[in-house]
Amino acid sequence: MLLANAYFDAGDALAPTAATAFVQSYACLAANAKDATCGATFVKDAGAKLFRRPLTDEETTRYTAFLSAQAALDPAATAVASVLRAMLLSPNMVYITELGNSKVGDVTLTPFEQAELISYTVADAPPDQALLAAAQKGSLNDATERATHAQRLLLTPAARAKYADFWQQYLPLGDLRGATGVDPALAAAVEDETKQHFDKIVWDHNGTFADLVTAPYTYGAQALSAIYGAMTPGQNGALTLPAGQRSGFLTQAGFLFLPQDASVPHKVVHRGLTVRRRLLCHSPPPPPANLMPTAADLQPLGADATPLESFAAFQTQKPQCAACHVSFQPIGLAFEEFDNMGKFRTAYESGKPIVTSGDLQNAGDASGPYKDAVEIAQHIGSSKIGEYCFSKQYAEYALGRHLNAATDACVIRGASDASANPPLQKLAVALSDIEARTHRVHN
User: Fold this and answer.
1) How far apart are CA 175 and CA 178, in angstroms?
2) Which of 95-109, 122-136, 300-314 has the lowest mean pLDDT?
3) CB 194 within 8 A of CB 249
4) Could you please report the per-residue DSSP string of 419-437?
5) Neighbours of 146 (CB within 10 A)
6) 261-316: per-residue pLDDT in tens?
7) Helices 111-123 and 143-154, packing angle to 10 deg
8) What's the rounded Cα separation, in Å, for the pair 10 and 84?
9) Crossing angle (nearest 10°) for helices 373-381 and 384-399
10) Once rounded to an integer, what is the mean pLDDT over residues 31-48?
11) Percent of the chain with pLDDT over 90
């Protein structure tokens, strides 16, 4: 109900201003808005802009008749505003359709539906004149033609903005600016680093998923040395990080940060689950209500024990819980060389050494032994499962719907298998170049 009210409010706010502009552009509207010929011309032009396709004859007749009826009661601008308000609230305006001819069985999307999907997938914007012209000509059934338009749109600021928004949603970043005890300038530098890392790799270097996860460098202000230590300036503004300590965004402060009051078990579980879910697309099931472990369960030896010692005891004392925790908690332990702020360390405050080695299991071709978080990042960055998982999440974001690994396998593979370790820029283009983007099955 709230969303519907918001649409009504938006229509009420936009229609009068737009109506004034239309009346000024169509002199015949001001002279006689009831005239069917004049009304039909306005209705066709306005409808094509708002519905992102030509109106059908039935729609043109219906909206023209509505305009004539309103013009008999109200001044021209008010009557035009009523028509625009009706169009703004129409499902044809609000939704991107994928109906084709609406018959049962295999259907091909209409040229204008294909134009919409290309434009919104790449740039989150309505089709431009070039795309609409291609749709009108009927050339978008050609995969090469679709890819050409997608590549053209990829060069627009809107495409960059969409990629940046995806990156912001993809990363589960903590609220550094609102965190207690974090210098605001340093928090701003960390946020800027996260954005620059993605932006530079994608757009300046035409980089890949592997580059995001394995880069031994970063981009940002020298203020980051408060976290990373000495950083060596390199080419194109890159900052080389201390050798052996960092690998891509998984070891950046923006990814690692947790509030000061976050418990050690929370930190380990959070980091492990995030890698398992975001990088490997594997979400362990939630614990049964009668088996929910408490904070004390996760630290059975007390606060003085190391997280590794606590987990070993937890496995013994709570085997029914450990059967699931074993899929993600060891991953979190590999990141124990980084404190809540992301600073590197080799021992706990107690003096006990930090043990980060383990064996990444149930991770497809990323599986295998590792000595620390850097090696986990290297495993995932060079794996097909990591690339596949990242492509799946981008495709879900770009298409605005959940993708099932079984029924939507062609869509996911189409984005991830365009080439070996494809450039990230190709994700959006590849999605416009697969048959599943133009065909649907209606039941």
Assistant:
1) 6
2) 95-109
3) yes
4) SSS-BTTHHHHHHTSSGGG
5) 25
6) 888 889 999 999 999 999 999 998 888 777 777 778 899 999 899 999 999 999 99
7) 30
8) 11
9) 70
10) 93
11) 63
| Token pair for 133 | 């012209």
433 touches 143 (CB < 8 A):
yes
Contact predicate 245/339, CB 8 Å? no
C-beta separation of 306 from 333 below 8 A: no
- Pick the closest to residue 247 from 215, 276, 274, 222 (CA basis): 215
3-state secondary structure of 164: helix
Contact yes or no for 215/197 (Cβ under 8 A): yes
* Whole-Å CA distances, 178 to 51, 184, 190, 258, 443: 42, 9, 13, 12, 50
Beta pairing partners, 221: none
Which positions ≥6 away from 263 have C-beta within 8 Å?
295
Q: Is 340 helix (H, G, I), strand (E, B) or coil?
A: coil
* Mean local confidence (pLDDT), 398-422: 73
The pLDDT of residue 109 is 85
pTM of the model: 0.87
CA atoms within a 13 Å half-sphere pointing along the CA-CB vector of 56:
4
Task: Say what the pLDDT of residue 55 is.
Answer: 96
The CA–CA distances, whole Å, from 19 to 4, 35, 40, 202, 334 equal 22, 17, 15, 42, 61
DSSP strands (E only) in 185-252:
217-219, 232-233, 238-240
Predicted local confidence at residue 108, as pLDDT? 83
Structure tokens belonging to residue 26: 């169509």
Question: What is the token pair recorded at 165?
Answer: 């928004």
Which of 77-81, 211-215, 419-423 shows the lowest per-residue confidence on average (mean pLDDT)? 419-423
Residues linked to residue 442 through DSSP beta bridges, in sequence order? 105
